[in-house]
Structure formats: C-alpha cells, structure tokens
Specification:
The complex is a heterodimer of chains A (263) and B (199). Helix content of chain A is 72%, strand content 0%. The model of chain A has no long low-confidence stretch (mean pLDDT 91). Chain A has one domain (28-262). The longest helix of chain A has 28 residues, at 25-52. Chain A contains 13 helices and no strands. Chain A has 263 residues and is mainly alpha-helical. Chain B is mainly α. Chain B has one domain (2-197). In chain B, 79% of the residues lie in helices and 0% in strands. Chain B contains ten helices and no strands. Chain B has helices spanning 2-11, 15-24, 27-32, 37-68, 78-106, 110-123, 135-142, 145-149, 151-158, 162-197. The radius of gyration of chain B is 18 Å and the shape is elongated. The chains are: A mainly alpha (263), B mainly alpha (199). The A-B interface holds A 24, 27, 30-31, 33-35, 37-38, 41-42, 44-45, 48-49, 51-52, 119, 182 and B 9, 106-108, 110-112, 114-115, 117-119, 121-122, 126-128, 132-134, 137.
C-alpha cells in the first residue's frame, strides 16, 4: 500500500514537471533537436580519429557509438526526469529547501523532480541513432541496452546528488559542484577501458563513471549478465548512498525562510 | 591537448551569467551603471579566466612533463604561445557574451551554445590536431574562428618558427577584431531591444 502510494506520488510529480516543461513546446522542441544535433556533431571527433587509427585497445568506432549512446541515454533520462539535480546545490545554498521540507514526503524526490529539461529528450532520441545505426546493435540487444543504460542513469543522478550535497558542508563550493559535474561527464564520454588498476579503482568507487559508461557497454558487447547485474546493483547502492548523504547533510541545513513564498 | 583543454576549461560557460541576468531582469541594474555592462562583464570574466588558466596550465604542464619525460615546449616558443593563448581566450569570451545576449531573443541560449561548443570541439581540434583531419575538413576548420580559439595556440607548441607564429597571431587578431565588432553590434541590438520592450 505504501509502495503504491509512493509510486502514485512520484507519477504525479513527474506529470506536473513534464507538463510545465512542455508548456512552451517550441522551446522544448528546439532544445531537444539541438541536443540531438549536438551529440551527432561530437561523434565526428571519433569518426576522424578512427579514420587515422584502427582502434583504441580493441575498441572500434561502433563501440564508441555504443558508449556515447549509453551516456546520452543516461544523461537525457536524468535531466528529463530529475532535472532538479542540476540546481540542487544552488537550492540548498539559497535556503530554498523549506518548501520541500514542509511536505509529508521525503524531500529528495520532490527536489530532483522539481525541474525537467526537455533537451534530455534529444539525448534519449540520439541514443537510438548511436546504438542501432552507428553502433550496429541488433533489436534483440535493445532491451538489455535500455536496462543497463537506465541503471547508468540512476548511478549518474545519484552521483550528481552526492556531489551537489557537498554544499551542506561547504556552502561556498558551488563552482566545485559544477566542476565535478563537468569532469564526471567529460570522463564518462571517453573510453575508460585502457586505464590501469589505480584509475579503474577510482572510476568504480568515488567517481563512478565506470558504472555510467564502461560497464554498461562491456555488458552489451560481451553479452555478460554478470556485468549487467553489477550495473543494476550499482544503481541500487549509489541511490541508497545519495539518500544517506542527503539526509546527513540535511542536519546541517539552515533555512532561508522561503516557506513564506508559498503564501 | 594541455593547451586546447586548458583554454576550453578556463573559459568555461560564463554566458550563463548574462543569460541569468536577462531571464531574471537583473540586467536592468547592470545597464544603469556608468561602466558599460558588456565591458564590466568582460573584465570580470577575463579575471576569472586568467586565474583558472594559471592553475590549469600549471597542472597541465606538470602532467605533460610527467607523461612525456621532457619539457613540452622550447623556452623560445613560450612568449608566442602565451600571447596566442590569451588571444584565444579573448575570442572565446566575446563569443560567450554574444551567447548570453542571445537569451534576449530566444529565451534560453543553451541550445545554441551546445551546437557552438561541439563545433568548437570538432573544428577547433580539441582532441585531435587539425593536421590529422582530411584535407577538405581541415580547410573548412582553418577558415573558421574555431581554429583560432584552440588549434592556433596548441599548434605553436609543436612549431613556433617566427614566420608561423606571426601568421598565427595575425590570424587570431583578425578574428578578435571581427568578433569585437560583432559583439558591439549585438550589444547595441540587445540594448535597443531592452529599451523598446523592457527587460
């Protein structure tokens, strides 16, 4: 009963946020189309690279297409469903959590789903181009690909939440949060399999881009259920960690008395 | 890559500040000040960019020495690389100011910026030097301001012969002048729009 109620609450939040985003359909469509084009233009770099070199430690252009598709799906889904994660640090610093704390539910879902970025739709649409056309993936692999990429989206959203929560302890670290976001995305969009043990250790723990791009791609390339399960497991673990860090940080939160804005 | 990445990261995404000022209406306060809004903004951004550039270059040079086992550039090339890097940053900041102002017309400048940024990555040679590009694409890239922002300073690391360095710097100065003129026009157009329609 409680689970059903929670799911209904999340569905209602999602409906409201998406409705608000699509209220300006031209802007939403433009953002989505531009993001779609943006991803394809970025891929040109790799087309040029593989015109000069045959592979990167065994990875060919199709593998890169697979990787970019996974990250595009993960990022698109994250910002479309939980776009509030991009502003989380600013919201905390501005003392704007009050509105969410006054509700009879856990504040984190409401905060994350307080905003939806329509550009995410362009990212998600481009993922299919990368997978099916440029990556040469068959339709039979699509369910696994969508599953691991969706799990990657959860890891990404959770990691961003954790990094944005830094401002609970360091209120002046807004730009650090933005730098961490950019760094995370930059690493996620590049092949990580050539790295040695030490770097991989970081990528599988504190800076988990391996669960966002490397492992999902390897799971599909090798048709390896263990790697797929590892990504799904990571989604659960990092989501739990994000909730834990947010709750710990919340104890240090100072109100901005923004509850008056509700009047 | 040390040069291209440090220029791209040092400049960052400052257009969002102008976009935010326009969306929130705070630009009205900026326009009232005795110092023109565009100049004040560029001055602030220049300081931030220089600060970031120093940190990024220090880390980048250290990484370059560590990875290659040698000094990445000859001392004689350093002045040309420094000037070229500063010119590259200046051109990028002018672009960013124009993107910020674009919010006055299109509401959100982000979609335009994404496309510009990826063109910068591809045509500027962020990851791969333009010398590896197929000839037609290389010719196109070199005829754009994107090459002047990333490839120009990076190419001087490999070849800073006086004639080549001079040609590179002149090319960047021409793009800087063109972009400065375009920015001036966009600034005037935005000011007229704010005067007619409000902020």
């Amino acid at each position: 009963m409680k689970l059903r109620s929670s799911l209904l609450y999340l569905a209602a939040l999602l409906r409201l946020t998406v409705t608000e985003t699509l209220a300006r359909p031209l802007l939403a469509a433009t953002s989505a189309v531009m993001m779609f084009g943006n991803n394809l233009i970025f891929f040109l770099v790799w087309v040029i690279y593989f015109a000069n070199f045959s592979n990167i430690r065994g990875w060919i252009l199709a593998d890169l297409a697979l990787l970019i598709g996974v990250v595009a799906w993960a990022f698109g889904l994250t910002v479309f469903l939980t776009g509030g994660v991009r502003d989380l640090a600013q919201t905390i610093v501005d003392g704007r959590l009050d509105i969410h704390l006054g509700r009879p539910r856990h504040p984190l879902p409401g905060l994350l789903m307080s905003r939806s970025l329509s550009s995410g739709l362009g990212d998600m649409a481009s993922a299919f181009v990368f997978w099916l056309w440029l990556g040469g993936i068959g339709l039979g692999d699509l369910p696994l690909l969508v599953a691991v990429s969706t799990a990657a989206a959860i890891v990404l959203a959770a990691t961003l939440t954790i990094s944005q929560c830094i401002v609970f302890w360091l209120p002046g670290a807004l730009s650090l949060c933005e730098d961490l976001f950019n760094m995370l995305m930059m690493v996620a969009f590049y092949p990580q399999h050539p790295y040695g043990f030490a770097v991989r250790l970081v990528l599988f723990t504190v800076f988990p881009t391996a669960f966002i791009s490397l492992l999902p791609v390897e799971a599909v390339r090798d048709h390896d259920p263990q790697q797929a399960l590892a990504v799904l497991g990571a989604a659960v673990v990092y989501a739990g960690l994000a909730a834990l860090v947010f709750e710990r940080g919340l104890r240090r939160y100072s109100s901005g008395n923004r509850v008056l804005e509700l009047r | 890559m040390v040069v291209t990445e440090s220029v791209a990261i040092a400049v960052g995404y400052p257009y969002r500040a102008v976009e935010g000022d326009i969306q929130s209406g705070q630009i009205a306060a900026g326009l009232m000040r005795p110092l023109p809004y565009a100049l004040a903004t560029l001055a602030e951004w220049s300081g931030n960019t220089l600060h970031r550039l120093l940190v990024l270059d220090a880390a980048g040079i250290a990484a370059g020495v560590w990875l290659t086992g040698m000094a990445p550039v000859s001392p004689a090339a350093i002045p040309a690389i420094l000037i070229s890097t500063l010119l590259a940053c200046a051109i990028m900041l002018l672009f960013q100011l124009q993107f910020g102002y674009a919010a006055a017309w299109v509401g959100s400048a982000a979609p335009l910026f994404w496309i510009w940024q990826k063109l910068l990555f591809v045509l500027g040679g962020l990851i791969l030097p333009l010398t590896l590009y197929p000839q037609p694409l290389r010719a196109v890239a070199e005829a754009t301001p994107f090459a002047a922002m990333l490839f120009a300073p990076a190419s001087l690391v490999l070849d800073a012969a006086p004639a080549r360095a001079a040609a590179t710097l002149v090319s960047q100065l021409i793009w800087l002048a063109l972009l400065a003129a375009a920015t001036f026009l966009v600034d005037r157009a935005a000011a007229s729009r704010f005067a007619e329609r409000g902020v």
